[in-house]
TrEMBL record:
Cellular component terms (Gene Ontology): CURI complex; UTP-C complex
One biological process term in Gene Ontology: rRNA processing
GO MF terms held by the record: RNA binding
Key word RNA-binding present: yes
InterPro entries in the record: Nucleotide-bd_a/b_plait_sf (IPR012677), RBD_domain_sf (IPR035979), RRM_dom (IPR000504), RRP7 (IPR040446), RRP7_C (IPR024326), Rrp7A_RRM (IPR034890)
This protein's UniProt keywords: RNA-binding
Protein name: RRM domain-containing protein
Alphabetized CDD domains for the sequence: RRM_Rrp7A, RRP7_Rrp7A
Family: Belongs to the RRP7 family.
Domain RRM intervals: 51-155
Domain of life: Eukaryota
Length: 273
């Protein structure tokens, strides 16, 4: 939310220190971010309470470099985490260069982790007479059409690099699965401390491959079984229709038999010449 520069630099609200920021020197609007020490009952190892600040109302265009530049005045910043809302945990990290786990839209919450606990105490004593600039000449922020154009261009990865990353992922996955199988097999052969043997779900009989042909065969068998379970000649109209179809079939067979007999009689006629 935009406000005046004087109001941004004046107040502390609800135990939070006010951090006034501007997008750049060309903009007159001042926005306020709010920060305090991160205090929770069950802290995450990557967010120790004596080394972490929680920062609220972080604008969408404010990135990790912006916060590092602002808070590095009081000490070395170890890491920064962004979330949609306050949380004691951390986001699941991904090693992929092409697939992002989650992109935060809109305003967000940041956690600034310092190397030393004394940096948190210094940060809580910071006084801002003028707003901090998020976009500078040395580190400009990309926004608007330019940002969207870059994101669109980056949405088309190079096939060879993508294939290399996929191959590496599958190699690691197969290695992990093989290790799990070996551990499971070892547990199945050896009893534990109390003499119990772990029963494995893997039997001697291997399962069938889920191919299109096998699935089609199973569906046909299920359809046949379902037809056998259906009640035949149970309702009155079923009995009536069954009798009618049976009589029609008998008449059809009778006419075919008459034709066969006529052909046989014609073939027995005496023809001397």
């Amino acid at each position: 939310m935009g406000t005046t520069e004087t109001a941004c630099c004046r107040f502390n609200i609800g135990g939070y220190r006010v951090l006034p920021v501007k997008f750049s020197e060309q903009f007159a609007t001042c926005r306020a971010m709010y920060f305090k020490q991160h205090l929770v009952r069950d802290p995450h190892p990557l967010k120790p309470v004596d080394q972490t600040l929680i920062v609220l109302n972080v604008p969408p265009y404010c990135n990790e470099q912006c916060l590092k530049r602002i808070f590095s005045i009081v000490g070395q910043v170890k890491s920064i985490y962004f979330h949609e809302k306050p949380t004691s945990g951390v986001n699941e990290e991904t090693n992929s260069n092409f697939f992002e786990s989650h992109t935060i839209q809109g305003y967000k919450v940041a956690y600034v982790v310092f190397d030393q606990p004394k940096s948190v105490k210094k940060a809580l004593k910071m006084k801002f007479k003028t707003p901090c600039m998020l976009s500078t000449k040395d580190e400009p922020l990309t926004v608007g059409v330019e940002k969207w154009s870059i994101e669109y261009a980056n949405s088309f990865p190079k096939i060879d690099k993508l294939q290399a990353e996929i191959d590496e992922f599958m190699k690691d996955y197969e290695t992990t699965i093989q290790k799990e199988k070996e551990i499971e097999k070892k547990k199945a052969d050896e009893p534990d401390d109390e003499g119990w043997v772990t029963v494995s779900s893997r039997g001697k009989k291997k399962g069938f491959a889920r191919t299109e042909t096998n699935v089609e065969k199973i569906n046909k068998k299920e359809t046949k079984k379902r037809g056998q379970r259906e009640l035949l000649n149970f309702y009155t109209f079923q009995i009536r229709d069954a009798k009618r179809d049976h009589i029609a079939e008998l008449m059809k067979n009778f006419e075919e038999d008459k034709k066969k007999i006529a052909l046989l009689r014609a073939s027995r006629k005496f023809k001397p010449y």
